[in-house]
Amino acid sequence: MEVSHSVKERTISENSLIILLQGLQGQVTTVDLRDESVAHGRIDNVDAFMNIRLAQVTYTDRWGHQVELDDLFVTGRNVRYVHIPDNVNITATIEQQLQVIHRPRGDRLLRCDELVGSLPTLPLSQTFPTCLQMLPH
């Protein structure tokens, strides 16, 4: 699951139900759009502004014409409704996403340490660049 990159986006996500939509990444669902059209596909990404990227999409326009698309980007202002799949536990999904957003900052160093072995003791300002240099290219 991808986490919003900026502090502003994380704040927006955790203070709204956008966090639920972000927890649906990888799920197949239906998105109703404001122009009466419908997109049915797998959610690849949802940002804090409810922009949704779908994959393997069946897009149905307001007249009922269907088109198969590899991917579709829907801007947040065009979303009318997102169907939550029946198998999704809403409370658990929100709690899981909150944990992803609030992970301890030390996780990044642990992941880097696991990839390249134990790092030498360096000042904090040198630790991250050293980690990047040690990663396999």
From TrEMBL:
InterPro entries for the chain: LSM_dom_sf, Sm, Sm_dom_euk/arc, U7_snRNA_Sm-like
Q: What keyword terms does UniProt attach to this protein?
A: mRNA processing, mRNA splicing, Nucleus, Ribonucleoprotein, RNA-binding
Q: Which GO terms describe its biological process?
A: mRNA processing; RNA splicing
- Per UniProt, residues of the Sm domain are 16-88
Q: Where in the cell is it found?
A: Nucleus
- Any idea which GO molecular function terms this record carries? RNA binding
* An annotated GO cellular component: nucleus
Q: How does it assemble?
A: Component of the heptameric ring U7 snRNP complex, or U7 Sm protein core complex, at least composed of LSM10, LSM11, SNRPB, SNRPD3, SNRPE, SNRPF, SNRPG and U7 snRNA. Formation of the U7 snRNP is an ATP-dependent process mediated by a specialized SMN complex containing at least the Sm protein core complex and additionally, the U7-specific LSM10 and LSM11 proteins. Interacts with CLNS1A and SMN.
According to its UniProt record, which protein family does this protein belong to? Answer: Belongs to the snRNP Sm proteins family.
Task: Please state what the protein is called.
Answer: U7 snRNA-associated Sm-like protein LSm10
The opening ranks of the lineage are: Eukaryota, Metazoa, Chordata, Craniata, Vertebrata
